[in-house]
Amino acid sequence: MVAIGIDLGGTKIQGVATKGDEVVGEAKVATPTGGVEAVVEAIVTCVARLDAPASAPVGVGAAGVVDTETGTLLQAPNLAGFDGPVPFGPLLAEALDTRVTVDNDANVAVLAEHLMGAGRGANDLLGVWVGTGIGGGLILDGCLRRGPGGGAGEIGHMALVGTTRMCTCGMVGHLEAIAGRAAMEAEARRRHAAISAGTPTLMVELAGDKRMKSSVFAKALDAGDAVVSELLDEAVVALGTVIASAATLVDLDRVVVGGGLAEKLGPSFVGRIEQAVRSRLFVPTSPLRVLPASLGDLAGALGAARLSDL
Ligand SMILES: [Zn+2]
User: Fold this and answer.
1) CA–CA separation, 188 vs 190, rounded Å?
2) Ligand 1 centre from 170 Cα, in Å?
């Protein structure tokens, strides 16, 4: 049976049509900034381009907090015009005239890695997505864990002691405020511009006034830039500390690390995270492995396509 998966992000909408593990169609459109109706229309366009049977069920992984029972998007700060709870699943089901299931984008990405990627065969799996922010998803006893509030797996908002950096969520000392791309960009710019003891960094020279892409981090690292090295060292320690804490609490057999920045920095970055985790595990004989995610950009859409099977 053909199923459709949609990854609804802040900048793009990625769609796939799948038959089991096989991808039979792909389509991508930009995420409109005109609010809910415009986004529903853009998804209808994306689905039409997939050329799938009209009755194919649609799964959506959305950037935000989702009530999966009702398909309501409770909070979606990265989607323009989604203020307050939006009954997104029902609206889309009406527009497409088919069954629609909605979940969080990080959750569906870890679901895909669990079913067909680097997390295959792991019963207790954590997915960590290091990009602009830090997302996460948790599989326990082979099932996606959502939790009573829908926030299970949100590893980016676990707190570390000894840091006062402000997180995008408004709280202090969260992992995302140290190891997220946007947080590291802000810190690099702050250090570069510090008046009395500023440290010029290639990161700012390469990015200029534009968004500091993941490729800028990789280039500056290759060139031996001191600031990017320090920021990434701090990120590795913070990621290692929080992942080891999570593994100590629930006992994991695998962690997959993906997301734009992790992908750009490659397996050596993930290897450093694994070392940082291993040296902090309470049970040193734990079989836990930390591996690079293997499905890349399509993980979210592939996982969303499997939502109708759950
Ligand atoms: Zn936070």
Assistant:
1) 5
2) 6
Q: How far is the CA of 174 from the centre of ligand 1 (A)?
A: 5
CA 247 to ligand 1 center in whole angstroms: 20
Q: At what angle do helices 226-250 and 214-222 cross, to 10 degrees?
A: 120
Q: Cα–Cα distance between 17 and 26 in angstroms, integer?
A: 6
Whether pLDDT at 196 is above 80: no
Close Cβ partners of 209 (under 8 Å, ≥ 6 residues apart) = none
Could you tell me the end-to-end alpha-carbon distance of the chain, in angstroms, rounded to an integer? 15
Mean pLDDT of 151-172: 92
Output the CA 241–ligand 1 centroid distance in Å.
16
Ligand 1 center from residue 167 Cα (angstroms): 5
Q: Measured in angstroms, how far is the CA atom of residue 115 from the centroid of ligand 1?
A: 29
Q: For 60-107, write each residue's pLDDT tens digit.
A: 999 888 999 999 999 888 898 998 899 999 999 999 999 999 999 999
Spell out where 131-282 has E strands: 134-140, 143-144, 254-258
Query: Over the stretch 24-47, which tens digit does the pLDDT of each residue have?
Result: 999 999 999 999 999 999 999 999
Does the predicted model carry a pTM greater than 0.90? yes
What is the chain's Cα-based Rg? Answer: 19
